[in-house]
Design goal:
The protein is an alpha/beta fold and about 325 residues long. It folds into 2 domains: about 1-210, Spore Coat Polysaccharide Biosynthesis Protein SpsA, Chain A; about 225-290, no CATH class. Helices cover about 40% and strands about 20% of the residues. It contains 13 helices and 10 strands. Strands 1, 2, 3, 4, 5, 6, 7, 8, 9 and 10 form a 10-stranded mixed sheet that branches. Helix 5 (about 140-150) crosses helix 9 (about 240-255). The protein is globular.
Length: about 325
């Protein structure tokens, strides 16, 4: 029923746990395709030692995560595609509950499950914008995402109909940051989204920042980052206030690093002037209107505070162990 696709690039320290979490699923009707995107750290060799007929390894020259996932789907044999990143993992019941979700809500083209954000070894429940008593059903993707700005759909806890993936031509090959958001937006504009409010996936925030798309040293170009490539949604934004609010909120959050580094200043000015700041937290008006030296100081203070907090948490965890 499921073709599971894992893109792999230099995550040797994590990928075996990710793969084993798939192979240990209680639901057995699946294949697992790991697309190695030109790794150089020996991760693929670790997987070659695993003996399981459901596991297929697909090597390619380095071309980015979008191409890796697309190539994995091209070889997929089943009707539903499940994605998992190589440093994240699933609960053993993930596919079992996904199969039931599909059966219960067959009109959806895209499905997702709630998840834990793992930081310092602690599982923090994601704060998805669904009511407290929500268990499962169809959701308004734009509205739910914009309630808390915790992504309700992500490439480590999502399943999509293969026919819809092919119809949408998959992930944009040029995008290396937010490529999944781009696809989910396109799908949610045309199809229903099914959601299960159970915590059955784990998003690993403890992975080295050099191996994460949101790593501090990442410097994406505007061609690679989804936030500069949403013009195709302008017509829809004018018709759908919830979509407009979501995208503006994502713009305000995602553009900050570029803005403070004086990158793409003209493009950012054009984007920001289309946003109604009164509908968003006042901190963003401060960010984009106050002197940058003041804003830098604000974020430096927050970063230092977070650094100290992480040290204290690690010390507390070590003390408990």
């Amino acid at each position: 029923m499921f073709s599971v696709v894992i893109p792999l690039y230099n995550k040797a320290n994590y990928v075996e746990k990710s793969v084993r979490s798939v192979l240990s699923q209680t639901f057995r009707d699946f294949e697992l395709i790991v697309v190695d995107d030109g790794s150089t750290d020996g991760g693929l060799a670790r997987l070659q030692a695993l003996e399981d007929d459901r596991l297929r390894l697909l090597p390619q020259a380095n071309a980015g995560v979008s191409v890796a996932r697309n190539n994995g789907v091209k070889t997929a044999q089943y009707d539903y595609i499940a994605f998992l990143d190589a440093d994240d993992w699933w609960d053993e019941h993930f596919l079992e509950r996904m199969a039931k979700l599909i059966t219960d809500y067959p009109q959806a083209a895209l499905y997702a499950i709630n998840y834990y954000s793992v930081k310092n070894g602690l599982n923090r429940p994601a704060v998805i914008g669904v009511p407290d008593n929500f268990q499962s059903g169809y959701i308004d993707y734009f509205d739910v995402y914009a309630k808390t700005f915790w992504a309700p759909v992500n490439c480590s806890y999502a399943v999509i109909k293969k026919t819809i993936f092919v119809e949408e031509k998959g992930f944009q090959p040029s995008l290396r940051m937010g490529e999944d958001l781009d696809l989910w937006l396109r799908v949610a504009l045309k199809h229903k989204v099914g959601y299960l409010n159970q915590f059955l996936a784990y998003s690993n925030q403890d992975a080295e920042t050099s191996q994460r798309a949101l790593g501090a040293e990442k410097h994406w170009t505007k061609e690679e980052h989804v936030i500069f490539n949403l013009d195709y949604l302008n017509e829809y934004e004018n018709q759908l206030p919830k979509l407009k609010y979501l995208l503006d909120g994502l713009r305000l959050r995602s553009l900050i690093p570029f803005y403070l580094q004086n990158a793409y200043s003209k493009e950012i000015r054009e984007i920001v002037k289309t946003i109604d700041f009164s509908r968003h937290p006042s901190v963003y008006r401060f960010v984009y209107t106050w002197p940058k030296v003041v804003v830098w100081g604000y974020f430096s203070g927050k970063k230092y505070g977070s650094f100290v907090k992480q040290i204290l948490i690690r010390a507390a965890n070590k003390g408990r162990n």
